[in-house]
Structures are given as structure tokens and as C-alpha cells.
Amino acid sequence: MPKVGMPEIRKPQLIEATITAIDKHGFPGATVSVISKKAGVSPAIINHYFGGKDGLLEATMRSLIKEFFEVLHSELYLTRDGDIFEKAMAIVRASISQSQTRPQVVKTWMGFWASAMHKPALYRLQKVYSRRLLSCLVVVFRERFEKERAREIAFTVAAMIDGMWLRGSLAGGIDNQHAADRINEYISLVLKQP
Amino acid sequence: MPKVGMPEIRKPQLIEATITAIDKHGFPGATVSVISKKAGVSPAIINHYFGGKDGLLEATMRSLIKEFFEVLHSELYLTRDGDIFEKAMAIVRASISQSQTRPQVVKTWMGFWASAMHKPALYRLQKVYSRRLLSCLVVVFRERFEKERAREIAFTVAAMIDGMWLRGSLAGGIDNQHAADRINEYISLVLKQP
Amino acid sequence: MPKVGMPEIRKPQLIEATITAIDKHGFPGATVSVISKKAGVSPAIINHYFGGKDGLLEATMRSLIKEFFEVLHSELYLTRDGDIFEKAMAIVRASISQSQTRPQVVKTWMGFWASAMHKPALYRLQKVYSRRLLSCLVVVFRERFEKERAREIAFTVAAMIDGMWLRGSLAGGIDNQHAADRINEYISLVLKQP
Amino acid sequence: MPKVGMPEIRKPQLIEATITAIDKHGFPGATVSVISKKAGVSPAIINHYFGGKDGLLEATMRSLIKEFFEVLHSELYLTRDGDIFEKAMAIVRASISQSQTRPQVVKTWMGFWASAMHKPALYRLQKVYSRRLLSCLVVVFRERFEKERAREIAFTVAAMIDGMWLRGSLAGGIDNQHAADRINEYISLVLKQP
DNA sequence: GATGAATGAGGATTCATTCAT
DNA sequence: TATGAATGAATCCTCATTCAT
Hints:
Four copies of one chain form a homotetramer.
Chain A: H1 6-29, H2 32-39, H3 44-50, H4 53-78, H5 84-101, H6 104-116, H7 120-141, H8 147-171, H9 176-192
Helix pairs in contact in A: 1-2, 1-4, 1-6, 3-4, 4-5, 4-7, 5-7, 5-9, 6-7, 7-8, 8-9
The structure holds a DNA duplex.
């Protein structure tokens, strides 16, 4: 008789192990052997549950994205009655705090980003993240600007978020407050425009 | 007497092959076998000239950085008599045009950036690039602002450059004019401030 | 459930294959490919069980030494009630018979001895063998002589054993009886001294 | 016009470099690249003068043997008017001092000995050394003993020499005086026999 | 005579995956 | 469900040798 509910236990366990492994040993160093050892299971389990390493990587990235947007939407919800500036900053805060609460996630994102260029499955996921973040920002700025202008601003803010996160990943940690202040400043300037 | 002047021929040839290989097959797919085949030489030659794969990768990244700053400084030179805005935009233009003139370079940069997190030699090079770009921007903004303020603005512009380049790499090519316009706008806003 | 008890089968199997390979192809010729082919398994299995070629070599040498001292101690046990001469000759017999029972072992020992000079792990093992044989002889000669004298004689006998074994390995096999007789003679002479 | 007399310069130079290289890096570490670098010439030179690495190794071993017997014969010559004991000890002294005056030679001999088992050319040379040393001893002991007895004693002394040299090579240096004393003792005992 | 460039064959090792249990 | 044994393909790298100069 098979144990029931094992997938629900094993899958998150392996995804968590993958993130930890990538952080510790880098993307190339995160082999199935390392990951499975970290999860305390046999390497064969990965094939069993994810059909192979690529499946595990895809699931891991999907999980990161899901988690990210959950944080983002809950932040947005808290500012549902706020003004446009407060809403924009909620998105910025969510995007940047992400890497603070779980610093190891930074390296993992970076690895996925690089891999995305050559693995279609990851590429699709990366696009989803990228567009969805942009879209959230566009929605906010549409409260004040016409569509094209809103897209421009959203694009700029999204690039600032990614750029600061990228530079922060290199520096070994982001100074979140400073990063947020810079984006804050840009948004203020834009909103003050006639 | 052996053939002379071969290093000067082989080294750039292998560096070029490395860039092409990373672009085409990704960082992990750029094996010595692939690279040497692309260069039309034996894999052993890589050890002969660079002491190993890591040496070749480091030389390649160094070459990209050198090339980048050559473009940047020549752009800056052209605006040596211009105002602060023109100088800043020269830097932005150089940073972004980089990816237009040689599109395959984008993926290579991306791969290096991800690898830099786990290979000390590449990490150091990435820091050099990162700091030097920042420093160029700071110098420009010091013409108008006090030190701390100049650093803030420079940091923001640098993040915008990297972020747009990152998003562009995903989109399969940057819309350079659009990206430059967005940064242009930010700089204009900042300079217009009292 | 995986197959159980495989380590107990594979490890001796690979060690045996290593001895055969070194005998047949020499130390440098005993590649993992040759050894694993001889054992009828994949080269990767060596890493699986011994962590690499060096681990296998070390285990092989350890196995030879263990086997040697087992023979030696069982020979010594048979003469536990005998006189000093009988005990000394038991050690000599054990040392020399070793190479008779398994001629291929001679070349393997030789290979290890040469390698021991440059591989610390093997060097340590060789010292263990060397000292332990000496120590066994010292114990025997202490029955008659004072410590320093016992050490001198033991050292001489040990050197004779190794030297005859070395010359025998070159000649393509030791004339055991002849070798034993020569050492026998020396011991007799020494014991007859006032 | 070719430089004349180069072989006479290059050959000893490369042989010396080979001995140094084997001592420093071990037999497997003494690659043509290492040797030629040590000699300050191009690797291709080795093929030029010795037809390949094996030729160089053979020449090196031949050189060691030649040197050894030169020392031995000059020691013997000094005792040409001495008694049998003095002559025997002259041979012993020569055999053992060899390794003291040039300690690096020990590792080289050891490497050759191990290689001799699988390389016919070296095997032949090793036999020459082995037999010639034995033969010198036999000649000495024939002054007193009949042929068979002389051979027995010579064989024992030769084995003691090799054994002590072997144990000494492991210990990291021979205590020459101690080794000579032990052999001295054996010879005295044998000569004192009725 | 002498060089360094260049190579092909072969070295150990790693890895994702499969399989019998 | 879960395992560890087992593998084949592919990794980088080393080495003795050859070749054009």
C-alpha cells in the first residue's frame, strides 16, 4: 500500500533543498546528488517526483515566482485605499524585501535568469515574472497617466528594481532602504510633473 | 625557429569563439570541446594559451570589459566640451549601444554575471566593471552636485542601465532608443531640480 | 530496496582486479579503465566505492599488508612454544612465502614501494609495514639479547628479507628455499655467538 | 652549418635534468615537459637526441649504472693489496655511499627498479647491474671459499646491500655507518667460520 | 640545431539517469 | 514509495610526439 500524500511532502522538501543548494554551491554546483543529500533522500527520488533535474528546476523557479507574487499582492492589498504613490512603493518594497528576507534567493534567481536564455521552460517562466511585475506597475500608474505614459514609467521602475537587485546581488547584499529611497525619489519626481 | 606571433592570433581567436559559444549554447554548454571546434583548433590549445578553461573565461570577460570601457571613454571624449547632461547621456549610450553592435555579447555578459557569484576570479572582474561604471557617472554628476548627492544619482543611473540591459537580454534584444529615453528622462528630471 | 551487500562483493573484487592489473601492466598501466574492465564493471564504480583511484590504491595496499601480517601471525602462532630460532624462521618463512603463493603480488608490492615515495597515503602504509615487520623481529630477539642488540639483528634480518625479495622480484621469482637458507645461516651464526 | 659537439653537451645535460626531475616530482611526475624545462631547452630536443622519452630514461639508467661501477672499481682499486674483508667492505661502502653522496639518486633507482618490470630495455639494464654487483662480490669471496659457497655469501651480501638501501630510501635517508656495520658484522661472522 | 605551436590519444572524474530490489 | 547500485556519456586536462619554421 503506497503512502498517501507523499508528493505534498517530498516536493516542497526538494524545492527547498534546491534553493539552498544553489545558494551554497552555485547553479552548476547544485547537482542532483547534492540536492538529494541536502533533502536527506535518494537521488532517484528527483526523477520519481519531477521526471528529472530539469523538472525540479522548473518547479523551483515556479515556486519562487509564486511566493514572490504572493508577497507582492499582500503588500498591495494593504495599500488598497492608499494613493498612487503608496501603491507603487508597496510593489517596490515587495520586490526588494524579497531578497532581504531570504538572501539565498538572490543567487538562485540569478542562476535561473542566466539559464532562462537557453532553456525554453525557464525562459517562459522568466517572461511570466517579468511581464507580471510590469503589469502590476502599469495598473498602478494608469490611475494617473494615459496608457502609453503609464507603460513608460512602469518599465523604468521595473528596470530600476531589477538593476538594483542585480547590483545588490554582486555587492553581497542589498541596502534595501537606500535602494527603495532611490526608486521613491524617481516616482516622486515623475508624479510631481505637470 | 617556431612560428612566431601565434599568441597574438590564437588568443583573440579563442576569446571570440568563447563569446560565440556562450551565446549559442549557454554558459554550461560552452565546453572546451565546443569552443575549440568553433575556433577550428584542438582543445589542448586552450591549455597551451590560457592554462585551462578558467583562464580562457577570465580572459574573455576581461576582453569584454576592456572593449566596453574603450567605447565608453571614446564616447565621453566626444562630449568633453559638452554640458553635464550630454556627458551623462554619452555614458548611457555607450552602455546600451554595447548590446546593439554585438547582440551575442548580451548573453555572454549574463552568463558571466551569474558565474561571478561562484568564481572568485570572475567576481573580481565583475566588481571592477561595476565600480568603474559607477565611478564614471559620479565624476560627471560631481560637476553639479555635492559628493553624496552625486553618488546617489550615479547609483540610480547605473542601476537603470543594468536593469534595462537585463530586461532587454530577456526580451531578445533591447529597444535601445526607448531605454535611453527613459534614462534621459530621469536625468533631466534630476537636473531640473532646484 | 536496493541490492544489499554489494560493497562486500565489489570492494574485494576491485582490489583483486587492481593487483592483477598492476602485475600485468605495471603501476602506470593500471588505469581505472583497465582495472574496471578486468573487474567487469564500469569505471565510475571505483569512485562510487573508493572515492577515486587513490582510494582504491590505498585500499589495495592496505589489503596486501593485512593479508601479509595475517600469514605472519599464524606462522608465529604455530611456533609459540618453539625456541627463538624457530620463531625467527617463522617470520622469515612468512615474509618469503608470501611471494610464492601469489607471484603477481611481488610486482604489485614493488609498484607500491616506488609510489610510496611520492604519495603520502601510500608512504604511511609502507612505513607501517616496515616498522611492524621490524617490531615482530625485535620481540623475538629480545628473548635472548638486550634491546639495542636485538634491534640491530632485527634490522639486519629485515633488510635481508626485503633485499632477497627485491632481487627475487627481478629474477622473475624467488628461490624461496635458497633465500630462507641464507637468512637461516645468518641467524644461526648470530645465535651461536657467545 | 650545424654546431658540432652538441650531442656531448646536450645529452649529459638532459640526463642530469632527468635525475633531478625524478627526485623532485617522482617517476610519474617526470614528464618531458618538466625535464626539458629543468634543462632549459625545448621538449622537442628530447626526441631529437634520444628518439623519445623511453630512450632518455634508458640512457639515464645506463648513466647511473656506469657511474656506480666507476665508484665501485675505484674503491676496489684502493684495496687491491688488502685482505678479503677489506675488499668486501670496499664494495659495501661503494654501494651504500652512492646514495649518500647523491641522495636524489635513491628515488631514481627505485623508480627504475619498478619500471624495469614492464619495460624490457630497463629490465635488461637492471639485470646487468644486479649480476655485475653479485659478480664483483663473488670474485672477492673466491679468494677464500669454493665457488658455490662464495656465491652463497655474495648473494647474501648483495641482498643485504639492496635491502638496507631499500629500507633507507623509505626512511628518508640511510644511516650509512649503521648499515655498513651490520654488513660488516655478517661478513666477519662468515669469515671467522672454520 | 632548436623552437614553440599544435595535436590525438588517453587520463581520472562527474553527472543525470536507470534499474533491480 | 524509496533505495543505492550501476552506468555511459561527457567533462577538463595531460602528455609524448610531430611539424613548420
